[in-house]
Description:
The structure is a homodimer. Helix content of chain A is 7%, strand content 30%. By secondary structure, chain A is mostly beta strands. Chain A has one domain: Phosphoribosyl-AMP cyclohydrolase (Ubiquitin-like (UB roll), Roll), CATH 3.10.20.810. In chain A, the strands form three sheets. A four-stranded mixed sheet of chain A has the order 2-1-6-5. In chain A, strands 3-4 form a two-stranded antiparallel ribbon. Chains A and B meet through strand 1, strand 2, helix 1, strand 5 and strand 7 of A and strand 1, strand 2, helix 1, strand 5 and strand 7 of B.
Amino acid sequence: MTDENNTPPVLGAGETIETTRAFLPRFGADGLIPAIVTDATSGEVLMFAHMNEEALRKTLDTSVAHFWSRSRGKLWMKGEESGNRLRVREIRTDCDQDVIWLTVDIEGEGVACHTGARSCFYRRITIAPGASASASLENVAPPQRSRSG
Amino acid sequence: MTDENNTPPVLGAGETIETTRAFLPRFGADGLIPAIVTDATSGEVLMFAHMNEEALRKTLDTSVAHFWSRSRGKLWMKGEESGNRLRVREIRTDCDQDVIWLTVDIEGEGVACHTGARSCFYRRITIAPGASASASLENVAPPQRSRSG
């Protein structure tokens, strides 16, 4: 994250947003960039959230995942209360630099979801091909008792 | 995806959106739901896109990933031109059913990104902790020549 965020991206000759080595994150009109979080050990997707510029900067500076809570309208250090912080091992961005992918280790009880499940994605969609009207959900891993936040 | 999408979600007694077995995808105000795509073999995040109701229904019905192209304003079967279709192995949703996670096998040349890279996330962010102003990008896997779409 550089000062270039507030000015037109500075790309070298022949460079595009897809090829540049400059990190020029593209926040949406709402000032947010989507962030995918996966587990460094299992590889599973743990959660999906949004970052504003401050959350991204704090994540880069501390190696602990920070987000922007759209529901609460405030900066949010994941696990601040529960202790289930997300320790960042690697951060990537995508071709057009409008998505962030964090690979993390979960601290504390190893719980990333507010329901107490390790991952927010604890239900798979079951369906017979061609029969989307009959789609339903099946638990992959049952939510646990304790609550994260 | 059921008729309940157009009416208030039908939850059983004591059920919440987090515990129900009913698939009640929550599309945003723009009619879209974010979709994370990971590789069934490597586990890496391949791409991130959006689905409208029709794209989700077609994905469920055909087991081939469909999205809504925000830039082109139309339904988009990934790989329709390039042959790099995304064959869906599993679909999950998250706790509050406003995100979709697809686990896929890439057909054709095994390329998911329009740059020709296998994954859109071919660059990691390199940074010294506490020095976010100096963040830059490093290629994880160099983009290939061929183009997907």
